[in-house]
Amino acid sequence: MKHRLRTTFQNTNFLVGFSILIILLLLTFVAPLFMQGSPLDMVGTLFNKPGNYVNRMGVIDAPKYPMSIEVDSIRLGAAVSNEEAAQMLEWFEKSELDIEWKMLNPAKDHAEIVELFLANYDDSIRLPGTSAYRKGFTRLYLKVQNLLSADGYVVQVEDSSSDSGYREVTKIQSRDFTNVKDVPARRFFLLGTDNFGRDVFHELVSAIGNSLMVGLIAGSIATTIGLLIGLTSGYVGGWVDNLLTFVTNMFTVIPSFVILILLSYSISSSSRSIVVVAFVIGLTAWPWTARSVRSQTLTLKNRDHVNISRLSGFGTVRIIVTDILPYVLSYVVMAYILQISSAILAEAQLSMLGLGPSTTTHATLGLMLSWSMQFQAPLSGAWWAFIPVVLSIALISFSMNLMNTGLDQVFNPTLR
Amino acid sequence: MADYILEVNDLKTRYVTRFRENVYAVDGVSFKLKEGETLGIAGESGCGKSTLAMSLMGYYFPPLHYTSGSIIIDGREITGEDPEVLRRTALGTEIAYIPQAAMNALNPTRKIIKYINDVLVAHNIRLNKKELREMAEERLRLVNLPVEVLDRYPVELSGGMKQRTVIAISSLLSPKILIADEPSSALDVSSQKLVIKMLLDLIDKGLVKSMIFITHELPLLYNVTKKIAVMYAGQFVELGPAHESVFEPLHPYAKGLMGSIIVPSEGIRDEHLVAIPGTPPNLKAPPQHCRFAARCKFRQPLCDSVVVPERFASDGRLFRCLLPEAVLRELKYEDQIKSKQEDAEVELDVNIIPFAGDNGDGDSGKESGG
Amino acid sequence: MTETDRVKVKRRELTDTFLEGKNMSKVYGMGRKANRAVDNVNFKFRRGEIVSIVGESGSGKTTLAKMILGLTSITEGQLEVHGQPRAFGTTAEKREYWKNIQAIFQDPFSTYNVFSKIDKVLLNCIELRGQKNLPYAQKVEIMTEACSFVNLRFAELTNKYPFELSGGQMQRLMIARIYILKPKLLIADEPTSMVDACSRATILDMLLKLRDEEDMTIVFITHDIGLAYYVSDTIYIMKSGQFVEQGTSDEVILNPKSDYTKRLLSDVPSIYEPWDLSSDDVEEDEFAAASGGDS
Questions:
Q1: Which of A73, A126, A159, B370 would staple A167 via disulfide (CB 3.0–4.6 Å)?
Q2: B330-368 residue pLDDT tens
Q3: Tens digits of per-residue pLDDT, A83-132?
Q4: Least CA distance to B221: which residue of chain C?
Q5: Is pLDDT of C9 > 80?
Q6: What pLDDT score was predicted for residue C278?
Q7: How many CB atoms lie within 10 A of CB A253?
């Protein structure tokens, strides 16, 4: 046994799968230690991009460092959207002035395009088209001109004692800088925020944990039921076998996902907690384990060591536990791993249909996907709300399947 | 043409286990076979006889590895040749091997004729359907198998029929040497008889020139082959004509082995069967001295300290024992060596031993004596 | 054991019938597909004799053994122990029955639970004898004695797993198990077919020793008529579920009456007479794949 264990951990497939799983598990335990609040706190707004967020007032309060870094064109560039840049290029084209604009890319060279536009724009050139179309260019020119003319900002607070009713606090020059570290209120969103403004990374970490729990509970239930039914029907035989095989076949013939949907649907949404959903998944996933354990038991039953135990007068339970269970155990462990991975997938599928755990206090991978779909994250380009979740599910399944393959190679060396 | 159809010189092969340990399963085997001769190899399970069979093909794949020695088939040395070349030009045509469980190796979903086609294609012989069938039918008639077999699936054949079919396929290209490893051990006696008949038929008709037959059933071996070799711990301890090997074995181990023969003949019930106590040595570290010494009834003090070479008796039989030939010829396994010679130790043929080093010399010492 | 001992035992009056089978049949399946694996056989096994049942694969000999052992049900007929129909209903009755009837099987590699150590195999036997509460030292004594009966050293076997032994040693350990249990009837189902000639002789000698020392009835099931002749007092020849010939070993082997027995004998290679390979009397039912009977 010890030897088997050693060869298992020498198997590359198993080792890689196991390492991925351990890293994911570690993440779920260690990452929350470095995060404030609960994973489902609504801290942001709808789909904030991933990044480091700093408080704007904090920036004003923070010490300023004048620097000689050219910022105007950067600011101009950042202030103009791709569409606006394209609009400027369009003006160059229509105005038929002798300008070298064809090399410029509206998606990249904002700064150059704005500079060129400011230098060449002439209101008197009459372009063909409606007046609204022409006014668009005028508005654009005014906008960028304002940006350019702003030499700095004056920050004022209300002050009744002052004549104007405002008191100047500070002036912000265009080349003033602040060290981000000097801003006390800031927050780093590795994966942005979701539709409710929750930190996706924090949510994801806790969802992985919850989904693994669903997998473990459902996998354990399915494996236990499958093992018990398989061993009993295989070893006892007779009408018990007929009955259990009938039930098993029935469950195999009816698509288990349909049963799963019906079961979940019939449970009122108020009582559909994570654990209940895990139970429901476990209760529908056992037939395959039962079938294969039964067929293995059938062949083992005819082995002479079982006959010897029967001749020794041992009871059915003792024979099953000592003479049959150890032989099927390696297979059952493999099946268990696959059950866990498929239970995680089943939970995701259920949640996508809106039949997953109904909870607002815990997240699962399936729920996260479901939320991001309902709030149309894919349409709004908020990739951070669903791609990391999908990758996590894939990674968990992948690691489990890899472990299964590794175990298979160790326990069935003939396959190699 | 060479004098011998098969010449094996000091062949050594080993297994490498998962833990990188060497198991010296064939450790210095030499023999020569003339055309038409058959050699039987007998021995306990684990003595290396099946490994020898595989090693003789010259085609090694892990965990079996080649160490040293040479195999010469009809003047062509196959050891050291490129495995791919060997597979195309020697396997099946020069030497063919029927493994122990050959009949269970047939894929149940393919008809027999497909296997015949496979053999031909592997040797770059391409025939159209009609030619293939004609050729196959002709061959089956030659070996007395019903031609209907061609269109059967393996599951439709009985064990004996399957085994005979496998033999027919293996010998399709008329290999010079056919190695049969326990071809009949899983069969009933009547099927066994047919299989043996077929094998002997192949030689009579010249379809194979020479055969090596491996089994632990000595009565069977006695009836099948002209020469019998007794193998122990990776080496031949006795090699001679079948009749002498069975009725007047020289080596103490062979004596014991022959004492365990049971045949349904009058008088067998009154004889006492011989069982050799103990177990064979571990082939991971075989002893340098006589490998049988630990189990030998006639062990002398010197047996534990000197290397035993292959020796040849006056009639040319090979044996690997220190006791003088004359003593061995007289000894019965039931005898006690001491009671015959009273207290005097038997004088050993130490003078014929070219090398009498201690253990741990590194040299496993298989100088060819005589 | 010397030659004279064996002769003495053989000459002893064997009248005490221990086990009797009356019109026993085993039928698999029903209706037209019914397969009579064992077909209406009658036999008497007496105390202290070795009975051989000889047959080719598929002849039903293993099925018969399983019926006697109670591992499979008897479809028709009955089995009598000491003239009484065997009591085999309740668990307690079964346990009592199995105290008297034990078996050794063909394949030593499948006879052992690879997860149990050798000690456990033997300790289970002691438990079965009702000596579960013996002090450990005494148990070791029993195990050591049993092992020495089969020329194994118990001290070398403790904490080992059966698969660390050779096939022959594993079969001998099975005999050690029988030695501890001391049943009245032992069914040895091809105990030597998977071991080589040397171990075979050892095992056969041990069976003879069990008969002589423990007065055990041994049913020796084999396909090798030579082994049967060497070891047994009575031989039954079985073909397609029926006994075609029965009698003392000498009667059956030296003066066979049935053609089937004669054929079996002629098919076995001998070293004393030339093997007649020319005869073509073998039935050419070769196309039929092995029939349904389990063996």
A1: A159
A2: 877 776 654 444 444 556 655 544 443 333 333 333 333
A3: 888 888 888 888 777 777 777 777 777 777 887 888 888 877 777 778 88
A4: C269
A5: no
A6: 67
A7: 9
Which residues does C18 contact at the CB level (< 8 Å), separation at least 6? Answer: C45, C46, C47, C81, C82, C184, C185, C217
B151: exposed, middle or buried (C-beta count within 10 Å: 0-12, 13-18, 19+)?
exposed
Gap between the Cα atoms of A212 and A29, Å rounded: 12
Strands C234-239 vs C242-248: parallel, antiparallel or unpaired? antiparallel
Domains plus CATH for chain B?
6-232 (3.40.50.300), 285-352 (no CATH)
Determine how many CB atoms are found less than 10 A away from the CB of residue A169: 12
Structure ipTM: 0.85
Please tell me which residue of chain B has the smallest CA distance to C228: B264
pLDDT tens, residue by residue, B160-214 = 888 888 888 888 888 889 999 888 877 888 888 888 888 888 888 888 889 999 9
Question: Given a contact as 3+ CB pairs under 8 Å, which chains touch C?
Answer: A, B
C227 to chain B nearest CA, in Å? 6
Tell whether A218 and A313 lie within a shared domain: yes
Written as tens digits, the pLDDT of chain B (370 aa) is 567 889 899 899 988 877 778 888 888 899 988 888 899 998 888 788 888 988 888 888 878 888 888 898 888 888 878 888 888 888 888 889 988 777 777 888 888 888 888 888 888 788 888 888 888 888 888 888 888 888 888 888 888 888 888 888 888 888 889 999 888 877 888 888 888 888 888 888 888 889 999 988 888 888 888 899 999 888 899 999 988 888 888 888 888 888 888 877 777 777 777 778 777 888 888 888 888 888 888 887 778 777 888 888 888 888 888 888 878 888 777 766 544 444 445 566 555 444 433 333 333 333 333 3
Q: Give the CATH number of domain C3-106+191-267.
A: 3.40.50.300
CA–CA min distance B1, chain C (Å): 33
The CB-side HSE value for B251 (13 A sphere, CA atoms) comes to 31
Cα–Cα distances in Å, from A104 out to A79, A92, A96, A138, B281? 17, 11, 16, 21, 86
CB contact under 8 A, A315 and C124: no
Task: For residues C72 and C37, give the distance between their C-alpha atoms in angstroms, rounded to a whole number.
Answer: 12
- Give me the domain span that covers residue A389: 2-44+194-415
B44 contacts B254 by C-beta, under 8 angstroms: no
In this prediction the pTM is 0.77
- C-beta atoms of A308 and C94 within 8 A: no
Nearest CA in chain C to A299: C110
Q: What is the largest CA-CA distance in chain A?
A: 110
The H or E element spanning position C152 is none
Residue A187 inside a domain? The answer is no
List the 1-30 stretch of A: residues with Cβ below 8 A of C: 1
A86 and A235 inside one domain = no
Q: Is A312's CB within 8 Å of C125's CB?
A: yes
* CB atoms C201 and B275 under 8 Å: yes
Q: Does A305 touch chain C (CB under 8 A)?
A: yes
Residue A295 to chain C, least CA–CA distance (Å): 18
Residue C184 DSSP symbol: S
Compute how many other C-beta atoms are within 10 angstroms of the C-beta atom of residue B178.
25
The minimal CB distance from C103 to the residues A1, A311, A322 is found for A311
Domain boundaries, chain C: 3-106+191-267
